[in-house]
Amino acid sequence: MTQHERQPGLSACFRHPERDTGIHCTRCERPICPDCMIDAAVGYQCPECVRQGAAENAATQPRTIAGGRLRTDTRLVTLCLIGVNLAVFVGLKASEYLGSGEFGLIRDFAMLGYAWAPGSPELIGAATGEWYRLLTSAFMHQAVFHIAFNMFALWFLGPNLEAALGRGRFLALYLISALAGSTASFALAAQNQFSLGASGAVFGLFGALAVLLRKLRYDMRPVLVLLAVNLVITFLPGLNIAWQAHLGGLVAGAAIAYGMVHAPRRNRTAYQVGVCAVVLLVLVGVCVARTLQLTS
């Protein structure tokens, strides 16, 4: 049947002109054929109106200051990160107890720039292409006090930032801060020095919280005092703390948080992704430069 032979009382589907229909979209009132009909609360809607409605709902949905979705549970990602750190710690201790050697796992996955493997003629480290160490080292802890301090700090800082940024943005902040801490250790520490722990990521959260409080015009003194105390502890002699990771995470966390909370509302997500990408590109550039320096 052609358009000129249409049955009385029927219209042409606005998306398929060759099809007759007696159904109209309840929102825009345009005729729609069975292939274009989508169930609505009342009647049917066309695909365009359904997409437009979804976009309007997303635009009007309450958002965090950084554009993330508001959640009733603001501790989920924080708890997952704590769980991963604890699981790795238990794995390290179990490996030691079973006799397979805790140090073997540290040798293979902790942050190390470029060195001979203990008891082996093999060269190991990030400069040999083992760049995964930049991330795996951030989930490894040797001593009970070390993981206890970092997980307490993560529990103290995490839920507030997770609530303010949203889950995805908070996770990106944590992981990139961890990478920044490892990158700073790679670039500034001795090439044969092992380092491990979530301290770089935690200091990234400190930097992010300071930026967030500044944006919200809250009293920053408690956080600044706590941060100052931790920085003093970082540089105390005899504690053997990787200060490079702390400073690297702090700077990266502050930079990412600034980009997230100051992003323009228009194209906010794209802007935030761009900020994270720029920080990652800087980290890659530093790693490549350090690798060339060590291996040339």
UniProtKB/TrEMBL annotation:
**Start and end of every Peptidase S54 rhomboid domain?**
129-261
Q: Superkingdom, according to UniProt?
A: Bacteria
Keyword Membrane listed? The answer is: yes
Location in the cell reads:
Membrane
Q: What is its main location?
A: membrane
Q: Which GO terms describe its cellular component?
A: membrane
Q: Name one GO molecular function term.
A: serine-type endopeptidase activity
Query: Any transmembrane segments, and where?
Result: 76-95, 139-158, 170-188, 194-213, 220-237, 243-261, 273-292
UniProt-listed Pfam families: Rhomboid (PF01694)
The family classification in the record reads:
Belongs to the peptidase S54 family.
- Record's protein name: Rhomboid family intramembrane serine protease
Species, as recorded: Streptomyces lonarensis
Taxonomic placement: Bacteria, Bacillati, Actinomycetota, Actinomycetes, Kitasatosporales
